[in-house]
Specification:
single chain; mainly alpha; Hypothetical protein af1432; two-stranded antiparallel ribbon
């Protein structure tokens, strides 16, 4: 895995774990180790697939299935395009958390969905078909964002504070020094 992809994957893991812990605290039944591992490995197929037409998500999923990790494989498979319906607000899957976390990280920085998709449209939206696919993915990502944050005492902009986290801990994450304004206790008030 190239160093920049490794760093991107680590940042996606930070966002996914932060959200997974918040969602678990809100009562969602998530297997947090699956969120963690799925986020770290979501781009395992990226480096070998660079410069090819091979789907890196599917390639990575196949490798993980062959190694005997079907649940992780499914998270990796869905990190680009989710399968199924997002309308069940009572259930969240680990693949949804990782998919959303990936959509919030541009290279190694946590950004808004608007910034992430503006970049995608410039870099990959070279044909009307490609632009339409990106726009459809953006619509699903916005619906997923609403689904995730509907049950949390957080808003999507709170994730931007994760840019200040050290690689090895939650310390120094840049959370405002207001009551309830940290990843363990909720939304800035």
């Amino acid at each position: 895995m190239l160093p920049n992809i490794r760093e991107h994957s680590f940042r996606v893991m930070q966002v996914a774990v932060f959200l997974g812990e918040a969602l678990a605290a809100a009562g969602f039944d998530l297997h947090l180790p699956l969120v963690t591992v799925g986020a770290l490995l979501h781009d395992i197929g990226k480096t070998p697939c660079l410069g090819t037409l091979t789907n890196h998500a599917e390639w990575g999923a196949v490798i993980l299935e062959e190694l005997g990790y079907p649940q992780v494989a499914q998270v990796v498979r869905e990190h680009v395009h989710l399968q199924g319906d997002l309308t069940d607000s009572m259930a969240l899957r680990e693949a949804e958390v990782v998919n959303y976390a990936d959509k919030r990280v541009l290279h190694e920085e946590v950004v808004t969905l608007e910034a992430r998709f503006a970049d995608a449209k410039v870099r990959y939206g070279r044909t009307p078909e490609a632009l339409a696919r990106i726009q459809a993915t953006e619509i699903r990502a916005r619906a997923l964002e609403k689904k995730i944050f509907a049950s949390l005492d957080l808003d999507p902009d709170n994730l931007l504070h994760l840019n200040h986290c050290r690689r090895d801990s939650w310390e120094n994450c840049g959370w405002p020094s207001l009551p309830g304004a940290n990843p363990r206790s909720g939304k800035s008030r």
